[in-house]
C-alpha cells in the first residue's frame, strides 16, 4: 500500500521533480499525497542524518538545523504544487494562507536533539486539518523505515498493515510512557510523583514515537507535556484513527486553536479518564 513514485535529485532550479502518485486508497487524494510528501521528507532526512550539520538555537533553547529547514522546504514545495488553495503551517517556516479551511501542518524533524545526537528515534509529522480539526495524520520514523497514517473514519495503517490501539482499560495494568519527564518534574512535581506510582510498566521518553506505539497497540498510554500544535495535531489524528483517545490534560479535543499544551494519549476512553483524574489530582 505504500507509495512507490520515483524521486529525482534536485535540478538546476533546486526544485525536485515529482512523479505521479500511486494509490493508497481509491478516491482519497489526501492520503495519496500525504504519503508522497512523507517519502520526500524521509529521503531528505536520511541524507542529513548522522552528517555534519549547522546548528542554531531558538529563543526557547531548542535546536534547529539545516535538516529541519531542508526537509520542511521539500514538503512545502510539494504540497503547494499539489494543493495551491490549501494553507501550510510548518515549525520552521511559519504559516502561509492560514485562513483557508484546509490546512497542512508539518513538523520536519520531531526530535531534533535525537537527530543531532545520531539517535534514530526522531520522526517526521504531517497532518491535514479541515476548519481547524485534524482529519489526517502521518507519523514517520525515517531511520526505522516505519510510516503510520491515520484518516478520520478510515482507520490507521503502518507500512500498509492496519493497526489498532489496545483494549486496556485498567491503569494499574497499563504500559505507560511519560514524555518530557524532566519538564514535568520541574514544573508539576506533584503530577510527576503520581505518575511514578501509575501503570504496571513505566518508561521515560520524548517526542512522537511513544504515541505511535499507542496507535500500534504496543503501549497503552502516553502523558506528554509542553507541546506545540505541529507536535500534537498530526499525532492526534493517527491515535484516534487507530481507536485511541488524545486530548489535553483537561480532556479537551486538540485543535489548531489549542496553543501550547500538555497532552494524553490513551488506548481506551476508560484509561483516558483515569489518566485525566491522575494528572488533575
Automatic annotation (TrEMBL):
PROSITE patterns: IMP_1 (PS00629). InterPro entries: Inositol_monoP_metal-BS, Inositol_monophosphatase-like. Keywords: Hydrolase, Magnesium, Metal-binding. Pfam families: Inositol_P (PF00459). GO terms for biological process: inositol metabolic process; signal transduction. It comes from the Bacteria. Mg(2+) binds at residues 91, 107, 109-110, 231. SUPFAM superfamilies: Carbohydrate phosphatase. Its cofactor is Mg(2+). GO terms for molecular function: inositol monophosphate 1-phosphatase activity; metal ion binding. PANTHER family: INOSITOL MONOPHOSPHATASE (PTHR20854), INOSITOL-1-MONOPHOSPHATASE-RELATED (PTHR20854:SF4). Belongs to the inositol monophosphatase superfamily. This is Histidinol phosphatase-like enzyme (Inositol monophosphatase family). It comes from Shimia abyssi.
Amino acid at each position: 500500500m505504500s507509495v512507490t513514485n520515483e524521486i529525482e535529485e534536485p535540478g538546476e532550479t533546486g526544485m525536485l521533480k515529482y512523479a505521479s502518485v500511486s494509490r493508497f486508497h481509491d478516491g482519497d487524494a489526501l492520503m495519496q499525497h500525504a504519503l508522497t510528501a512523507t517519502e520526500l521528507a524521509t529521503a531528505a532526512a536520511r541524507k542529513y542524518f548522522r552528517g555534519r550539520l549547522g546548528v542554531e538555537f531558538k529563543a526557547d533553547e531548542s535546536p534547529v538545523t539545516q535538516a529541519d529547514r531542508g526537509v520542511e522546504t521539500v514538503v512545502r514545495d510539494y504540497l503547494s504544487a499539489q494543493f495551491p488553495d490549501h494553507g501550510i503551517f510548518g515549525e520552521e517556516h511559519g504559516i502561509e494562507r492560514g485562513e483557508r479551511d484546509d490546512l497542512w501542518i508539518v513538523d520536519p524533524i520531531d526530535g531534533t536533539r535525537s537527530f543531532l545526537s545520531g539517535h534514530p528515534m526522531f520522526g517526521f509529522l504531517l497532518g491535514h486539518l479541515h476548519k481547524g480539526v485534524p482529519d489526517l495524520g502521518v507519523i514517520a520514523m525515517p531511520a526505522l523505515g516505519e510510516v503510520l497514517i491515520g484518516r478520520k473514519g478510515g482507520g490507521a495503517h503502518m507500512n500498509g498493515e492496519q493497526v489498532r490501539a489496545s483494549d486496556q482499560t485498567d491503569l494499574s495494568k497499563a504500559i505507560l510512557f511519560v514524555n518530557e519527564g524532566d519538564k514535568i518534574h520541574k514544573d508539576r512535581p506533584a503530577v510527576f510523583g503520581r505518575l511514578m506510582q501509575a501503570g504496571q510498566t513505566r518508561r521515560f521518553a520524548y517526542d512522537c514515537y511513544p504515541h505511535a506505539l499507542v496507535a500500534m497497540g504496543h503501549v497503552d498510554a502516553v502523558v506528554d507535556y509542553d507541546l506545540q500544535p505541529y507536535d500534537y495535531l498530526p499525532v492526534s489524528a493517527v491515535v484516534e484513527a487507530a481507536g485511541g483517545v488524545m486530548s489535553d490534560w483537561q480532556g479537551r479535543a486538540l485543535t489548531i486553536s489549542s496553543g501550547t499544551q500538555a497532552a494524553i494519549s490513551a488506548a481506551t476512553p476508560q484509561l483516558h479518564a483515569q489518566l485525566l483524574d491522575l494528572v488533575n489530582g
